[in-house]
Amino acid sequence: MIPDAEQELINQYLKKVSKIPLLTPEEEKELARRARQGDQEAFKKLIESNLRFVISIAKQYLGYGLPLSELIAAGNQGLAEAAKRFDPDKGVKFISYAVWWIRQSIMQALSQQTGAVRIPLKQSHLINRVSSIYSRLYRELEREPTAEEVAYEYTKEQLTKELERELGREPTREEIEEKIEKEGYRISPGEVEKCLSLCRMPLSLDAPVGENEDTFFVDFLSKHGTA
Fold this sequence. Notes:
The protein has eleven helices and no strands.
């Protein structure tokens, strides 16, 4: 449960950001292009128009040791980092790209404050592999991969190793696909979802995140000194 004082501040913040209009796809692309050219006003507007989405993501991490105000502040750092890196000509919506960075920044803050999130030891290897595959696919696809796509990549990875041992050489794509067709997935999409939900973070923790100076115009909560 969020303390009353913090809830009041959150409500004020929600009211503030809800008044910021959403961007049309055309406006988003134009602002992103200008931001990449160093236009700070465009950079600021791109971020501010997406602050409401950070709140929704931050709420998923309640109960891990940080108040919602700090989770939002951390998420805003990730949003700023995403705005610095976003390429509007890739055909991906900004917020779809930014989700990765928002979650990454929140998890960084959680690990610094409370230590690593605890997960069952016997599941840690599988979770790490699934998270790593998810992160790789996110970078390659420039969107969040589906559980089906992660399950397929995990299975392909496992069967490739098995076939290498059996054949004494690197298997062909056709051989891998044939084995998948015969034996099915080594992990189901449902199991992928469970792995990701265990750590609340379908990402690795080794990617860089934004620095504090990136949030000079969005960190409304920290200006009010909540903790």
